[in-house]
Amino acid sequence: MAKALSQIGILIIDDDTEICDYMETFLTQDGFQVKAINNPQLALDEVRSGLYHLIILDLMMPKIDGIELLQQIRKIDTDVAVIIFTGFPSLETAVTSMKLDVVDYIKKPFNPEEFRSVLDRVMKRKGLARSPEEELHKVIGSTIRFLRKERGLTLKQMARRTALSVSLLSQIERAESSASISSLYKIALALDTRITRLFGDF
Questions:
Q1: Do residues 107 and 160 share a domain?
Q2: 175/111 Cα distance (integer angstroms)
Q3: How far apart are CA 185 and CA 196, in angstroms?
């Protein structure tokens, strides 16, 4: 049975504290259990804990090379999913990473939506599917965003039409908040569509 999203542990290893803070916030908001460390020398103890399903690893770090750290991680855990995250991509490190069973090799800075697609692919490959409830929120949010943009409406205009706050509408579109049936009914009316259409093919 696939794990629920909230049970999926992600370890971020990057010496840049700003990147660590951003990634931790970004992934926590998406419902993951996240730990970010900016000291790569502490990474192996975290890997040995067995708490993580995915590791996001920076390549260029002081004191230890990312590839060297990846080799050490593989000696501890051959199954954990690893995504390489680098501001200095090269063919050599990309090839070496793939030989060490890295699931993706991403250049900084990244596009959040593209990164989410990578995460979805990794989770499916590892049998770590999102829970049905999380998937439903995502489908509803993306459908509402698509229909709103198709009709040329801003969040502010939607707020005026629905009497819901811009903040709540934004959270619903980003699947960060669960919409009540009453809210979905108001949104469907504002978009001039059936409420069932907001559920996509779910």
A1: no
A2: 18
A3: 9
The answer to whether residues 48 and 137 belong to one domain is: no
Q: Which structural domain, as residue segments, surrounds residue 101?
A: 5-125
| CA-wise closest residue to 32 among 65, 78, 81 | 81
Q: What pLDDT, in 10s, does the model give residues 23-45?
A: 899 888 888 899 999 888 889 99
List Cα–Cα distances, 153 to 2, 32, 146, 193, in angstroms.
37, 31, 10, 14
Indicate whether 162 and 63 sit together in one domain. no
Looking at the fold, whether 91 and 160 belong to one and the same domain comes out as no
Model's pTM, two decimal places? 0.60
Write out pLDDT tens, residues 71-115: 999 999 988 999 998 888 888 888 888 888 888 888 888 788 888
DSSP per position, 32-81: -EEEEES-GGGHHHHHHTT--SEEEEES--SSS-HHHHHHHHHHH-SSSE
What's the confidence (pLDDT) of residue 201?
A: 66
